[in-house]
Amino acid sequence: MKVLVFHIGADRYGLRLGAIARVLPAAGLKQLPLAPAFVAGLLDFHGAPVPVIDLSQLAGAPARQLWFDTRIILIDYPANGAIRALGLLAEHVAGIESIDPASLADSGVAAAPFLGRVAGGEAGMLQLVEPEGLLTAEVRAMLFPAQAAA
């Protein structure tokens, strides 16, 4: 399995390539008043607003910093019976690695619902991010409001 590797602090995380629609350079975002702190803002993606989540803050790390290797990872996210674009702001995107699915193990810790199994390796431990666990129902409703019936 191939994953895009990035860091939150000193820790390595991975997102399955099959979950990724695009990887973009960090860009200016429109702030969303009253949104949770981990909602970085809205990205103007070819005229369409795309909500962006700061993975560092979601994981309890300090607020995002923009580095030369910070990227916005666009994923297809299921919301309201449709697939919508969701941006993930990731610091220190390191590249793509192959992981043997047989090497993945449960972390043994009930952490955040978006954190999945872990793999060891020469470069250190890597934990998978599971996109379906990123947003609570409340945040999902705020970022992807149901379309009004016509």
TrEMBL record:
This is Chemotaxis protein CheW. It comes from Massilia soli. It comes from the Bacteria. InterPro entries: CheW, CheW-like_dom_sf, CheW-lke_dom. Residues 1-140 form the CheW-like domain.
